[in-house]
Amino acid sequence: MIFKPVKNLAPKHLTPEQIENYNRQGFVAPLKLFDGEDARLQRNYLDGLLRQFQYAGRDAYEINEYHHCCQGIYDVVTNPRLLDYVEDLLGPNIVCWGSHYFCKMPHDEREVPYHQDAAYWPFKPANAVTAWIAIDDVLPEAGPMCYLPGSHLNGRLAWRRRSENVLLELETKDYQTLADPWPVVLNAGETSLHTDLLVHGSASNTSNHRRCGLTIRYVSTDVWVKSEKHIGWTQSAILCRGEDASGRWPNNPRPDREEFGPKALGVG
Ligand SMILES: O=C(O)CCC(=O)C(=O)O
User: In angstroms, what CA-CA distances link 28 with 153, 222, 238, 263?
Assistant: First the structure.
């Protein structure tokens, strides 16, 4: 599994330097997505979701894969400005198959071990772009996500399993030898984009501030699951832009309401 550099000689929204950076470092950041008032609305929206999850006794990290049943998340996933950036990296035919708020509460001690997303995901070719959108201002002491620049050029790396005090379990072996961490310190409303072979992780939140990022997973429509047993990974997909010549990807419509009710939350 190797990283396929983006060949886009005439990007429309990213600069040629940003494309070059993506190829060399494995990410682009920061990119402006939501201006002041829209960033505030995004934060209010998350506050509302979180209140419902917490009322139901659920963990802040469990707002996962709701983009096809929550209008607010659907609208971010299909945001034209975001898709313009992604299109410069993936081409015109774009599907979103996943989304997840990584909502690190104040003094949450759990870490995200350094990992490659591609180690978790059953897609081929591995060529996904993740948008990590800052819902809160991300402070250096709040456990920002950290990238290991250039680590995507090593192909798929060996991992080990960790279980204590972690949010995800796979940890890239010897990640410390790969590069110095680059903290993704963003203002609310900014986003970063990273490739699924880039090694990244985050430390615990030692601050009094929440650190929430909405991650959205995009691939081009010519990507598919490695085997039919993984088909479930595609079922909440949204065809965000262009066409799906393969005809394989589902295209979930914009939901006509927010699906967060007692039933969805398992308390009804
Ligand atoms: O938000 C974090 O700390 C980690 C996020 C992550 O691992 C990802 O976006 O793939």
Answer: 15, 23, 23, 39
What CATH number is attached to the domain comprising 227? Answer: 2.60.120.620
Q: Tens place of pLDDT for every residue, the chain, 268 residues?
A: 899 999 998 999 999 999 999 999 999 999 999 999 999 999 999 999 999 999 889 999 999 999 999 999 999 999 999 999 999 999 999 999 999 999 999 999 999 999 999 999 999 998 999 999 999 999 999 999 999 999 999 999 999 999 888 898 899 999 999 999 999 999 999 999 999 999 999 999 999 999 999 999 999 999 999 999 999 999 999 999 999 999 999 999 999 888 765 555 555 4
Task: Find out whether the beta carbon of 215 lies less than 6 Å from any atom of ligand 1.
Answer: yes
Q: Name the residue range of residue 28's domain.
A: 24-241
Q: Is residue 16 part of a domain?
A: no
- The predicted model scores a pTM of 0.96
Q: Looking at the domain assignment, is residue 197 inside a domain?
A: yes
In the chain the first and final C-alpha atoms are separated, in Å, by 45
For the CA of 143, the nearest atom of ligand 1:
3
